[in-house]
Amino acid sequence: MTMNKFNAGDLFPSISLPTFDGNTIEVGQPSEPATWRLVVVYRGKHCPLCTRYLNELEGLKAKFLEIGVDIVAVSADSKEQVAKHMEQISVSFPIAYGLSVEQMQTLGLYISEPRSEKETDHLFAEPGLFVVNDQGRVQIIDISNGPFVRPELNVLLSGIAFIRNPENNYPIRGTYQPSK
């Protein structure tokens, strides 16, 4: 399978997904009053590390909102799987579901097959995290090929606060393109 490399500074692609609360969300678009969005791609209800990460993220939601960043979590799970997962997580940010393989590839995510039917019944994305700025561009990208590597949320929070401070004039990093 070929994998796209999603570049820092690119516009976040238009991806609309249904949410557990019955709405449809444009994944990369923040909700007012936030002007930035944190998009967390998680593996699914079968992943205990995802459950822990989402619950930890809920504990920092107010601090992210204080710096103008709202949150959405997305997975390839079905609505029924999300409903079962909601018994284990306590979050107030939108949980979107039904991420397709094509959408995973567009985002440059690693994709895995389930090890057994016990795990899940569909292909799923390994963890990914995108911080989308007020211009719709990806300010920060973190993509992993396994559940064990994810950004530490307090470090991410302080980093975004630093970037958002106009006095720091901090650019999108990792955008160097050699001359041809």
TrEMBL record:
Domain of life, per lineage: Bacteria
Organism this protein belongs to: Vibrio alfacsensis
Name of the protein: AhpC/TSA family protein
SUPFAM superfamilies associated with the record: Thioredoxin-like (SSF52833)
CDD domains, per the entry: PRX_like2
Domain Thioredoxin: 6-165
